[in-house]
Amino acid sequence: MATFRKSERSFAPLLLLVLMASVGCRLDMHVQPRYNPLAKSDFFPDQRASRPPVEGTVARGDARADSYFYTGKIGNGDGDFMPFPVTKDVLERGRERYNVYCAPCHSRVGDGNGMVPSRGFVRKPPSYHIDRLRKAPIGYFFDVQTNGFGIMLDYSAQIPARDRWCIAAYIRALQLSQNATAADVPAGQTVPSKAPEFVEPGTGATLPQAAPSAAKAEKGETE
Predict the structure, then answer these.
(1) Cβ atoms within 10 A of the Cβ of 146, count?
(2) 3-state secondary structure (DSSP) of residue 127
(3) Could you tell me which of 146, 43, 159, 120 has the C-alpha nearest to residue 138?
(4) What was the pLDDT predicted at 181?
(5) Crossing angle of the two packed helices 88-101 and 161-178, in degrees rounded to 10
(6) pTM tops 0.70
């Protein structure tokens, strides 16, 4: 028993040394020789520890090699073509984004009578259906969304570039819808279209039930 206690006392200094060494290593890992963000540094002439990126640095995935896609311009002028095919999905996406970001001021039909100006906003936006904007190249609408115009702020931070093009395409569709002629109507469709008939108009809590068309009524189908 005495031998064990003597051995224990001989190991005590060694154990204390190991403990002190481990604490020292842990302190070095927690307090590293580095600068905190935006800290002062006497090493650089401007005394800023946070250094700006090297000139010409490009963020990963943000090379923007297609300048027209990101600017809507060819040289100093607005381009007049879409950088990708316009499909039904593109127009539906444009309508969705337009109704979120543009309709509050420009209205859902693009006449400038949105909720914001109708409630007393200092300046009403122009209608998309005036001659000046009907003749404007589609790149113009992309540029206005990207950089703003007049008192309208830019939406480049809120709306990705592709969605801005989708909105521009949808604005063109709005312009066509409000200025179409009989020659633009597909064959077999009347103008104005016949109002739908309902079997049950709905109560607000339930959806209306449309009456079947003549062709579907013969087959016993419902809308």
Answers:
(1) 18
(2) coil
(3) 146
(4) 80
(5) 90
(6) no
For the beta carbon of residue 197, count every other beta carbon within 10 angstroms: 10
* Two structure tokens written together for 222: 């419902």
Q: Which of 28, 27, 29, 51 lies closest to 38 in space, CA to CA?
A: 51
What gap in Å lies between CA 145 and CA 139, rounded to an integer? Answer: 10
Measured CA to CA, the distance from residue 150 to residue 144 in angstroms comes to 9
Cα gap 177→69, rounded to integer Å: 26
pLDDT at 142: 97
CATH code 1.10.760.10 for 68-179: yes
The pLDDT of residue 216: 57
Q: Which residues of the chain are modeled with pLDDT < 50?
A: 4, 223
Look up tokens 């009403």; give the residue. 124
Q: Which residues of 20-34 are buried (b: 16+ CB within 10 A; e: fewer)?
A: eeeeeeeeeeeeeee
Residue with tokens 């008192």: 151
Q: What is the pLDDT of residue 102?
A: 96
Q: What pLDDT score was predicted for residue 8?
A: 55
Enter the tokens of residue 167. 């909105």
CB 99 within 8 A of CB 108: yes
Q: 52-64, pLDDT tens digit by residue?
A: 888 888 888 777 8
The secondary structure element, H or E, covering residue 200 is: strand 198-200
